[in-house]
Design brief:
- By secondary structure, this protein is mostly helical.
- The protein is 51% helix and 4% strand.
- The protein has helices at residues 2-21, 28-41, 51-58, 62-74, 99-107, 134-150, 155-160, 168-171, and strands at residues 78-81, 87-90.
- Pfam families: Rrf2.
- One of its GO terms (molecular function) is DNA-binding transcription factor activity.
- InterPro entries: TR_Rrf2-type_CS, Tscrpt_reg_Rrf2, WH-like_DNA-bd_sf, WH_DNA-bd_sf.
Amino acid sequence: MFTLLTLFACYWQDKYCDFYKATTMLTKKGKYGLKALVDLARLAPGETAFINDIAARNNIPKKFLDTILLELRNVGILRSKKGPGGGYSLSRPATEIRIGHVIRTLDGPLAPIRCASRTAYEACDDCADPETCQVRRSMTDVRDAIAAILDNMTLEQFVADGGRIDGAKEQFPISAAS
């Protein structure tokens, strides 16, 4: 997704350069959360991992990872167990965890700008008519393309094939010039 969004950003860069300078594609929180979930998805069924081990294996600051894993636990993606044999594990199979849900949980809406968001819509100060605004309409298409990929990608797929979805390149072709 992040490469895809970056490529969409490159497409618009000539006209909307300042907009993209202010847009974060994926925060460290989102990136670290995905890395931790990949780590946990690779565990044997019933196995748990201590936060110190996850942090060390993935080069993630432990305090930051504490916050991330707590957030993922609070929405039901992870479970934790204290004491001997304790640690973190996935709360359900990796086939049931969608990458889009994880990213929305940690980073918020997938839309590249607020006026294109379904869940955090905020009108632009400089837009007379949001319904006819070409930037908003185009960024809504970008949002839909990103969501189509991430909402159909499971954690299992993300782990197994590096996050590639069959047909994604064909569905959303990007020119080599991007």
